Structure formats: structure tokens, C-alpha cells
């Protein structure tokens, strides 16, 4: 066969939004997929192998965009999302709860809501009201984005 007879479809590197991983390797503050949503793990415990079964990992995780807690056990493989963190400078906060962020290339990103975590929400609002220059970290996974932390870089 010549090279002309081979036709391959190209895809982006990292085209998959998730990957499998052994449940026993997941640690606190890691991420897993539950019911099709990315979740941050806030607690992990492992049970020993029983007489008729396998060792299991027990997770208590927090769904970041909804703020709900779940408790669930997994015996072997678990689905893990590809998670990315990006920093943006906070420009403005609208009355309806959306933020305006400055990207690296100078454009604005206006499609994110303020976080649901009360402590982080008050830090962002208070710092912005005081006129501080704030940089927010945005975590993105499986097509979802959320502000996860805040850095104060000084006065405007």
C-alpha cells in the first residue's frame, strides 16, 4: 500500500476530557468525575480487602459548580477529568453576579459568575470595593469553569 491509500483522521492532543485512573491513587484535593460532572475530592479513606471482596476507596467530594457533597465508594478504576488553571486580572463585577476578567492577550472574558463559596465571594467583593488589584484563578474541566482562588497584587 502506498501512502496515498492511508487516510487518517486528525484530532487535537488531549481531545479527551477525562482519563481512567486507579481509585487508590486519588488524593485529597484531587479531581474525579461523578454523574458526569467534575468534582473536587475533600476527603479520602481506604478500606482493607475483605474476605470476599476487594479494597475500596471511599470519597467525600464537593461538586464545585453546585456546592453539593457526595459520599461514594469505588473499587478499581475511576474517571478523572483533565483540569486546567488559568489566572486572570479582575476588571469589574456586574450587578447580576458576572465578572469581567482581563486575559493574557488583552481581551476580556465576561462569561463567569462569582463563586458560590461564601468566604471566597466576600474576599473578592471586599477587595474589589477597596480598589485592590486582584487576580483570580479559574479552574476549568469538562467544559465547566469556576473561580477557585484569589490573589491580591496591590492597590490600583
TrEMBL record:
Protein keywords: Hypusine, Initiation factor, Protein biosynthesis
CDD domains associated with the record: S1_eIF5A
Stretches with biased composition (Basic and acidic residues): 1-10
Assigned protein family: Belongs to the eIF-5A family.
NCBIfam families attached to this UniProt entry: eIF_5A
Protein name per its UniProtKB record: Eukaryotic translation initiation factor 5A
Post-translational note: eIF-5A seems to be the only eukaryotic protein to have a hypusine residue which is a post-translational modification of a lysine by the addition of a butylamino group.
InterPro entries for the chain: IF5A-like, IF5A-like_N, IF5A_C, NA-bd_OB-fold, Rib_uL2_dom2, Trans_elong_IF5A_hypusine_site, Translation_prot_SH3-like_sf
